[in-house]
Records
---
Amino acid sequence: MSHPTTSPRHAAAPSTPDPPQAWAPAAPTIALLTALGVLMVGQMYTVLALLHPMATALGTTPGQATWTATAFGFAYAVGFLLAGPLSDRYGSRAVITAGLVAATAATLAVSVAPNLPTAIALRSLQGLTAATFAPSALSYAVHHIAPQRRGTALTCITSGMLAAAVIMQIGAQAVAAGLGWRAVFWFSAALMALSLIPVRRVLRPTLRHGTAGGLLQAFAAMPRLLRRPRLVALYLSTVALMSSFVAVYTAVAIAGPPSIAGNSSAILALRAGALPALVAVPLLAPVLQRLASPLRVVLAFAPAALTVAAGSFLGGHTVPLAIALLLFVAAVAAAAPAVVETINAGAAHAHGAAVALYGCSMFIGASLGPQLTGALTGLGFGGILRVVAVALVLGVLLALPALRHQRIE
């Protein structure tokens, strides 16, 4: 996990490491960036638990309300491409701070949206501002955490971002049940504003080593990477992975497994049941990393497809369905870092640009997931999951060229 986050600036020239005495304190830095990862990335997923009350308040349907998730995700994908080079140019702490201020305002604005078109526009703005966090946080960890702690830091931060999909849905459902859906955005905005205090106290300013040319170099590397078929296939596999992940949780929210449809407590338990997987996979990272990353991609995608396919037949049985979703989330949590490492290994010296494109493809996939579910609601919960399983099989096929390339080498 220590490779994928090399910045675009360092892709062009060797980095000059900070002297040992300059390393940031690992524990508070990791705790802060992991918590903020849950909060900021989780804004993508909060609306999946709010589709019904939002639809009622905005005068639309839950299926149409999924556009609030899609709009956020597409804007986040674009923002990810911009934030990485900006972080290199102006420093991670500066970009995180500015992004938190902007995201606080955008999140408050979403809470007062009077209709669906306005909510979609404001969610786009929220996604663009929230996107400043992830690449800046990962860049900060690479530059300021001591090498012996860096792997742990990156694993915790990226796991927090993935766990946000579950944690923030649970939190949003609980808040909305007592205070209404708009309160979810009030609380999120308040937490963003309050986090500015520890950001200024814990994070250190980053010296500006980059130049305007550094920005141009980062963007120029992206078209070159997109001319490499194996990397393009891996980016497409990322789209398949994340669209499937979000589609499954959207299906839980709007299609409803037959055994728990309309039962908010059961749906909450189903979401929470995946949390152990998001704790276990980071703990197992040292063992998993003994396998080559392309092999881990294939070995993770395959059980993801199998568990979703099995889950499509378990809608009438809550406990087996919860176990299937637990295994599915574990497979996704194992696949995501393996895809990053494989992309990084094939990116030569353009690591920062490669990871920026990976982040973009992640959130393009996350944006397509709600629309996939919305378009397939007529198939029912089981039918949606069977289509998702096919998408994951496609992800396996897209990852195979990287595995074959490794064997040839």
Note: Confidence is low (pLDDT under 50) at residues 1-18, 209-213.
---
Amino acid sequence: MKTKVIKLSGIALAVAALSLGGYNFANHSIGTAHASPASATMTSPAAASAAPSAALTLPDFQSIAERYGPAVVNISVEGTVKTSARGQSPLGGMNPNDPFYDFFRRFGPQIQVPEGEQITHGMGSGFIVSSDGVILTNAHVVADATQVTVKLTDKREFTAKVIGIDKPTDIAVLRIDAKDLPTVPLGDPSQTRVGEWVLAIGAPFGFENSVTAGIVSAKSRSLPDEGYVPFIQTDVAINPGNSGGPLLNLKGEVIGINSQIYSRSGGYQGLSFAIPINVAAQVRDQLMTHGKVTRGRLGVAVQDLNQALANSFGLKAAHGALVSRVDTDGPAAKAGIEAGDIILGINDERVGSSAELPPKVAAIPPGETVKLEIWRQGKSRDLTVTVGELKSAQVAANDSQDMDQGRLGVAVRPLSPEEQQQIESTAGLLVLDSTGPAAHAGIQRGDVILAVNGKAVSSIEGLRKDLAAVGKHAAILIQREDARIFIPIELG
């Protein structure tokens, strides 16, 4: 069964009848547990009273829920979807046992239902960050809604205005016309540690102000198609309706916005993901000030490093973001960054993996100058880059599916002028067949070999010389369809 990342949108098509199944509820109380040291011998009452007693105190979720629960709101949305024209049988609710049922089923006319609109309803959660009515939630909760209603814990309801939506980070900012509202303080996700207790408040399946708890499972998680959010992973129970609700630490500070689950069944399976609140706060500020979100851009495609690639580039540890392509006339190209460079840090902040680079760059205002630490030809160096404005993002994925008939094991030919124009490169050799080390590493027929260890390849003889000059490991830059990726090769 395929595992899916699911955005917990409550949007669903309205239906003629709604049936609710039975629910079983179990109440669990969290209190204080006391442990006394075990003793194998009898002690006097005086000695026993003098002996220290150990007390294990569980997290005080109750106080946090009581204090900050009123700042968590229930969001219901209404929208419309267009329906196409379709044929409909005139049988309607006709009894199948009716003697004319089979006649009409076979020979009755089809009634043509014209195009129209159907009302949709959805639900989610949010939380108040300003006493004058500013609310944060997920973009997918309110996207395409024609009406958004916010309900407070005191049963008051308000029609909310959508201030702005940022789909790349899945953040939306709402405002309701109210004053002196309860709020929740915002924390610092960078201070959050793996294993730390956290709790979520929201409206799973419409059950308002429900509290669930768990721990932080991991930080800076990268999810498919979510390149600008370093998610906080938890094992807090999150279900449809929790979307947009807060993830709080034991200080009662919001450290994230509950957004997605990873599931094979479509329901909660212990893997929940929250958007760090610092990412959401940056988006909120830009949406409220400018009405849109701008992001920084380097103009590179990057991929992750494994140990084999690190060895090929003479890097001891497999950390950093490997540049597989540099956009022509982009900020990185103007600064001298080349394919094969490994970005180790940005403004003295370490880049541990390729997934960490996009959100770091996106957070930098366009036009600002940054210092990049890169690894090139066996040593590190610093480059200065003026960050551009992001229009569209590209991140290369290392799919590793895939004759100099010697060390590499490929049969190749030079590219024709038309092929060079197609891939926008004057270098490159087309792979006609792949065996040995190349096939084992995933190079396949139709790939174009562009470089060996960062050195451009334009002829078969040049490829042989480049391979003869490297040691046991080589990093081969190839183009596969529209993506350029480095593939590590064990040459032996």
Note: Residues 16 and 456 are 64 Å apart (CA to CA).
